[in-house]
Amino acid sequence: MRTDNEAAPPPPPAADPAANAVELVGVSKNFGAVAAVHTVTLAIRQGEVLTLLGPSGCGKTTLLNIIAGFEEPTRGRIQIDGRDVTLTPPHLRDTGMVFQNYALFPHMNVFENVAFGLSMRRMPKARIAIEVSRALEMVKLEGLGGRRVRQLSGGQQQRVALARAIVIQPKVLLLDEPLSALDKNLRGQMQIELKELHDRTGLTTVFVTHDQGEALSLSDRIVVLNRGEIQQIAAPLELYRRPANGFVASFIGDINHLPPAECHRYGSDILFRLTPAIELAMPARADLALRDDQKAHIFVRPEHLRIADETGEGRNRVLCQVVTHVYQGTHTLTRVEAVGLGLLQLRIPGGEIIERTPPGSRIVVTINLDEATVLAEA
Amino acid sequence: MLRLEPRFAARARSGLFWFTVVLILLFMTIPAVVVIATSFSPSELVTFPPAGLSLKWYVRAVTYPDFQNAFINGLIVTSFASTLALITGSAVAYLIDRYAFPGRAALEAVLSSPLIVPHFTTGLGFLMLGVALGINQGYAIVIVTHVLLVLPFVTRSVYVSLRNIDPHLERAAANLGASPGRVLTRITVPLLLPGMAGGWLVAAVLSLTEFTASLYVTDAGTQTLPVAMYTYIREYSDPTIAAISAILILATTLVMFIADQIFGLGRILSIDAH
Ligand SMILES: Nc1ncnc2c1ncn2[C@@H]1O[C@H](COP(=O)(O)OP(=O)(O)OP(=O)(O)O)[C@@H](O)[C@H]1O
Ligand SMILES: [Mg+2]
Question: What is the ipTM score, two decimals?
Fold first, then answer.
């Protein structure tokens, strides 16, 4: 368990810049007084699916527009495929974008929409026909080339937009919340199809979403943004397990943010005094340099809270009162209140807990801090 | 206090509503109705209600040489004026929509001004200018006047269509490799065509029926139909004038109806929310 928590070595700096599909160096974008993007430095690796994740207005679309060339950065440089494109107009950048509203050309049919990029590249008609039908087949729309785009369902329009972007084999595929306009079932299905599509095409992909579930399931790496600044870049699992700061911890998945605690070393443990009555212990970690009496913030996932067994043994026991249960099929989210800690959330497999401990009952909860995120107060 | 049973009150309200609607419609169409009814009158005098049914004034209207010439004049003036206005208006609309330049707000204001400057002012102004420049005879002065009068409508029509184009479409085209010129020819103009055609038709109807300014800037050789009609009623008082009016009403209604069916006048006259 400990080894999991060792700091991952930083990726070696790329010697050959062409190994990265896209590089942003110190990119900022201001709209008047609003800093939509603030000194973002980011290398997108060849063939990876990189997700830009963050709350509404954090600058995801702006960043995508900067890569596509629709916005000129206020400061900084952009490279695509090793070539500086900071001042290159969009039509010479070779990026393929899928817009949030799909932006299909209403005066063209499906075939003409998908063929547009190829005919701009002056590809011979016969080859265009082959490429388009291949692309339509990839997105499971074979035979619909003659349809007008207005006659398509939302899911089909989305596929046309995808086909239109991949058929030109862009240096980078840019997807701006492509699934947000779909209903929930369709979204799940399209997630799987996007993944398969990526496996088949191997296109470097930048995927924008504010849905963390989507980000965790689709990405090789996730960039968490807040107010135009990068909070963390990491693989999904690492992001979930080792959030770099409080924002990431609370943004990715459910988490319990405990009140600030004072810490003390005690043998091989660190003790956190949360209230005069509650003290929690955690095995000391190499990556956690905490001074005695330092204030720290503890974030712990709902699945690391358990209802204590009858034996009355075990560490980090806290007496709580059940507030509510929310049954979610495979598990139950239970909210409890502990004096001095406020509301805590537990994720308990199954549903029998609902009958065993109705709201109002008193239970003892153990808080396992082995995988908790601890952030020292500066 | 009188209290009505709710269902009855609702019915009374809806009855009142429809009564009002019918009244307004009647009020708005009554001049046309009177004119059309009179045009079928067999009598030599303009009388209402007509004392019988006859098509003889229609025959006279379409065979009267002054009307024939005026109609052809009108077609010449209208086709040039509407087309010139369409070209200028489209360019101006594009500039206003796409570029921030000094005087853009002023240009917008000037464009809407012929809507409030009375037509006789425009006509008089151009007449005086034409005299000063020695071009007060011939089609040119009429066409220029009409261009000015219909320009705001055409510009607005194209402008509204431009605003209704999803900007993402042009971005998508650029993203797929279309240079700015090809974005214009493959995306923007095709999407603007309905607005341009609709604007042209509205301009044509306005130009064909324009009277006040035309009275100043036309002469015997270039007079348009409304001016010829005015000249006619100063000399004669038979229902020919009603017949030619009826034809004009029918023709313009037909054109507007077609424009509405094909291009959607709602789109020309307002900005969709999208
Ligand atoms: N053209 C613009 N003019 C002025 N401000 C803008 C413009 N585009 C974006 N902004 C501002 O920049 C910030 C970032 O916007 P952006 O659209 O990139 O956010 P986002 O992360 O894509 O949000 P969402 O999830 O809602 O799409 C916002 O505060 C937004 O108001
Ligand atoms: Mg966005």
Answer: 0.81
